[in-house]
Amino acid sequence: MSAEHHLARAQELYERSVFGGDDEALSDADRELDAVEADLALARGRVVHARFLRDRVEDPAELPLFSRAALLYQQLGDGRGEGEALFWIGCFHQVVRQDDDAAVPALQRARTLATAAGDRPTLSYVLRHLGISAHLAGRLDEAREHLLESARLREAVGHLAGVAANLVGLAYVAAADGRLDEVPALLDRAERLASEHAAAGVARQVGEARQALDYDRAS
User: Fold this and answer.
1) At what angle do helices 160-176 and 140-156 cross, to 10 degrees?
2) Crossing angle of helices 160-176/200-218, nearest 10°?
């Protein structure tokens, strides 16, 4: 439901309480407003995270925003929303704090909830970051499996810029596994998708990967 719908329902419930004497309506009004607050906290947290990616400076508001969203969704019984918020908590720990030990439990719980809710976009993000975690730990087969499944889900929902980002990740995994002959095709496809879908950020990642992996081959 949209924020407008939740707010309109809260107004109706307020009037039912004040003018109709229905005291039970207030609890229902709180739930409607909690749903709006959860969505807003999640959206604001994503914007804060994007600012971190641009500036590489941690904002102390980021984790509390995602944590608040997760708590509210849990209280509302919204497993889909809770799964998305937990993904962002895991992403925060992995990307901002570089703390995989803190990230993985949140990502695993997010995977369970997103799978149960049939939330393919969130599941694709969760699997990507579980793949990153596996890569960092040297579990290359697991990393490849997660990134490939993430790419499959992203292709299914039309998120082709996200597919390109996963191809960059798969190129790093292939290089780490000694399969250097696979790297050029992965990066070429990633570059093509990034260009076709105006994903300048992913295109930069492709360029960085070309430099890094060329260096690895020469060393």
Assistant:
1) 170
2) 10
Instruction: Tell me how far apart the alpha carbons of residues 28 and 199 are, in angstroms, rounded to a whole number.
Output: 42
Q: How far apart are the first and last CA of the chain?
A: 55
| Block residue for tokens 């960092």 | 136
The pLDDT mean for the chain works out to 95
Q: Are 62 and 46 contacting, i.e. CB atoms less than 8 angstroms apart?
A: no
d(CA 73, CA 49): 20
2-11: average pLDDT: 92
Residue labelled with tokens 């990967």 = 209
- Reported confidence tier of residue 216, pLDDT bands at 50, 70, 90: very low
pLDDT at 215 over 60: no
How far is 37 from 31, CA to CA, in rounded Å? 10
Q: How far apart are CA 218 and CA 134, in angstroms?
A: 25
* Cβ–Cβ < 8 Å for 76, 34: yes
- Please, what are the domains in the chain? 1-117 (1.25.40), 119-219 (1.25.40.10)
Model pTM?
A: 0.92
Round to whole Å and give the CA distance between 145 and 157.
Answer: 19
Which pLDDT value is given to residue 192? 97
